[in-house]
Amino acid sequence: MKDIKKIKEDFIKESSQVETIQGLNELRVRYLGKKGIVTDGLRRLSELPREERPKFGKVLNELKRFIESEIKSLQQQLESEEAKKRVLSESIDITLPGRYIPPGKRHPVTQVLDEIVNTFVSMGFEVEEGPEVELDYYNFEALNIPKDHPAREMQDTFYVKPSSVDNDSTTESDIVLRTHTSPVQIRGMKKRTPPFRFIAPGKVYRCDADVSHTPMFHQVEGLMVGENITFSHLKGVLELFIHCLFGPETPVKFRPSYFPFTEPSTEVDIGCILCSGEGCRVCKGTGWLEVLGAGMVHPKVFEAVGYDTEKYQGFAFGMGVERLTMLKYKIDDIRLFFENDVRFLRQF
Ligand SMILES: [Zn+2]
């Protein structure tokens, strides 16, 4: 009994000296742990004579509960003290304004691309996608542009060397980064039978870099094929498209041109939106701006995909999304689109 009293006194003395949570944990282990003083006392009850055990057991258990509740209240006290100390030492300035996270938005090129896609979808066109790393065959050959064709010069591109080809080898690669979205038209035609109409929007690549060219830019090409498709369908669809994008009053002009994969071919001009046709620096004094190319699909292209050229006709068109965005928002340098300057981008 004396020993138990002594244990209690020791505990009270020691607990009054505890100042940290860690110290309290050590105290708990010393008294209540597996080899702790109280635990040991309870274990040694069996050494006592049977009739004495209940008496000592009761006192020891009371001591155990006393120590447990003391430790618990000490712990709460220490925790709140430590929390207070932490708050004081961190010295938070609650008057500091929060950090502003500017809301993001779509890039102007993406906005115009979406507008173009939506306009054609509303006219019943499907959307077709294809690979940006393309076979020479789909990018050139199937579009009536054989290896020695001068049109290849205008569209010189990035060739991709397959890993199986030795780096020093001078063999020409037949894999390119597509120079236009026309290969998607070939792929799209191969899996369809006329009549159909679809557009192919996406990124294309050319070895060009100046105020109006970047090595990567976006194109939307489109194709409509059927049994009685004529040049007037081409005019109707493209005029409607231009009026949707630039406004219903915009003058539209069709001018003869040349593309290897269409015959006849045409460039489509709109009345200069900067000078309203009076002539300025942007339209080089002509009052007109070229916005897209189009034409009736060349029979050789239909032959390449196995269509009956006597039965089917169709028209195709293609446009540069950056150029249309520049005209729509009167931007004079294409490189601004890709410099990631938010002062420029947040204007749209
Ligand atoms: Zn002008």
Which secondary structure elements does this structure contain, and how are they paired or packed?
Layout: H1 2-17, H2 21-32, H3 37-43, H4 53-90, H5 108-122, E1 126-127, E2 133-135, H6 136-139, H7 151-154, E3 159-160, E4 175-177, H8 182-190, E5 196-205, E6 216-226, H9 231-246, E7 252-259, E8 262-271, E9 288-297, H10 299-304, E10 313-320, H11 321-329, H12 342-345
Helix pairs in contact: 1-4, 2-4, 3-4, 5-11
Bound molecules: zinc ion.
Average pLDDT rating: 87
Overall helicity: 40-55%
Q: What is the succession of H and E elements?
A: HHHHHEEHHEEHEEHEEEHEHH
**Strand order across the biggest sheet?**
1-5-6-10-9-8-7
CATH hierarchy: architecture of the largest domain? 2-Layer Sandwich
Spans of at least 5 consecutive residues whose pLDDT stays below 50 are none
Task: List cofactors, ions and other ligands.
Answer: zinc ion
Main beta-sheet annotation: 7 strands, mixed
Helix segment tally: 12
Rg result: 41 Å
Under CATH at level 1, the class of the largest domain stands as Alpha Beta
Indicate the CATH topology of the largest domain.
BirA Bifunctional Protein, domain 2
Q: CATH superfamily name of the largest domain?
A: Bira Bifunctional Protein, Domain 2
